[in-house]
Write a structure and sequence with these properties.
The protein has about 100 residues and is mostly helical. The protein has a two-stranded parallel sheet.
Length: about 100
């Protein structure tokens, strides 16, 4: 894993999340910065595992809409966003992870 990817994933690992699949929960500006870094690494194909955002009570709905809009406007292809997922429950997270094993 590249140094930049390790740096971006550090907060998730220290919070007890597996480095192979970051699962950020709702948080403040620091979390947003870390999520943005991981999303960028995924889009640039520098990180090959998925990032599943735990969309508790719709917390990440606006981010999901923003990413969809960038795709709709041709600013980012859907292929570059393929590893970015939004889940509302543990069951949804499991459904995202099962096909990967």
């Amino acid at each position: 894993m590249r140094k930049q990817a390790r740096k971006a994933l550090g907060p998730f690992v220290s919070a007890g999340f597996a480095a192979r699949c970051p699962v950020p929960t709702p948080g403040g500006t620091g979390t947003l910065e870390e999520v943005s870094e991981v999303i960028s690494l995924i889009a640039l194909a520098q990180f090959d595992a998925p990032c599943i955002l735990f969309n508790l009570n719709g917390f990440y709905d606006d981010l999901h809409a923003l990413l969809s809009r960038t795709s709709d406007m041709g600013l980012c292809s859907p292929r570059r966003q393929r590893g970015i997922h939004f889940a509302h429950s543990l069951e949804e997270m499991a459904n995202i992870l099962v096909p990967l094993h």
